[in-house]
Amino acid sequence: MKKAKDIIEKKVFQTPFIDTHEHLIDESERLSCIEPIIPCDDWTLLLSMYFRFDLVSSGMSKELIGSLFSKQINPIDKWGIVKDYWPYLKNTASGLVFRNTIKVLYDIDDVSVGMIKKLQNSYEQTRQKGFYKHIIRDLANIRHCHVHSPIRAFRKSEFPDLLFQDIALNGLIQVSNIPVYVPEHIKPNSLSDWHSVIDWWFAEYNEIAKGVKIGNAYFRRLDFEKVQAEKVDKIFLKKINSREIGFSDEKLLQDHLFWYSVDKATEYGLPVKMHTGQWAMNNVMNMHWVKDNPSDCASLCKKSPDTKFIFYHLCYPHYEEMLSLAKSYSNAFIDMCWSWSINPLAAKDFLKKFILTAPNNKLFTFGGDDVIVENLIGHATVARKGITQALSELVSDDWIALVDALDLVEDLMYKNAEKLFK
Asked: What Å distances lie between residue 66 and 43, 50, 116, 370, CA to CA?
């Protein structure tokens, strides 16, 4: 008789994901190497997201980083830039994502000086028209992805059945008066005009958007208070006219626009997806703000009980509090996107505890949170390994039966998302 882990592993690896968070550009944009999103077009592009941040953390200089992702450097020579740092990072989650990607995609077990030519040749042969669907569906076994566009607030995809889109609200809440957020036919000269800008995005795209994404946790606490329009009219005029405003006034304006946007999302039945926890960038993270995320999220749920809030990334490293949040608030959902690639052992621990703590229909287990489509293979492999281990340990420790573990797989990997996002 097969071991329980083998049975669970087989089902987990055969079951497709619905990927609830990526930053993918369209395939045609990738093939045309739009800058600055695609800094180079060689094998190192696979390292240009989270592995890059770990390179900085390990001590690689700004100059070397620039060379590594430069179009002017021969791709074969780039291993010479990475090789001294590779031993520090190859066993991190970002290193495992890369290694799993090149194993599945290029049949390369590990990167070394002798494998760089094969790696580069394989990269070039793979990066051809049609490779998005092949990678996402055939190799990563993902039905479709939810995408927060890195280009504008909402972007209709050339693959609408593969890359579903969210409305990105960051710049609308922070008042970024640029074409990425402001349509040509609206000239915002007042707060009312800015409300019209927000209204336009919802009216235009609510029927095809899967939700709205708010990433303002990178720039402030999530302690958004409900502020009336008349209290921030004059503040908005200063902001839109590029006049300096203080921190307290900036917060009042953002608080007002946050709730205006959230109320609009709730009106249209769109879930509100929010970044919490770990920041992707180097040398800037405010740990005090991150620590306050769980209590701030609870306040948001309490203030707007009709809004479905989806909190990203487990609020790592404060994931115990997010278990309590999901257990306590009926409108709080947790998305494990990126968490497997931050700390896969913490993500496994969280999944085990969530299953025993909160209703399991409130959990979404995968999103690579990446810009580079090839990396979805590695992200999905790491996540599947973690899900397998979490369920297997619950069975081996006699918390749940094997049949219960198998029943959970489809819900956790795609059915929960299917039900909520319809």
From this structure: 15, 15, 19, 20
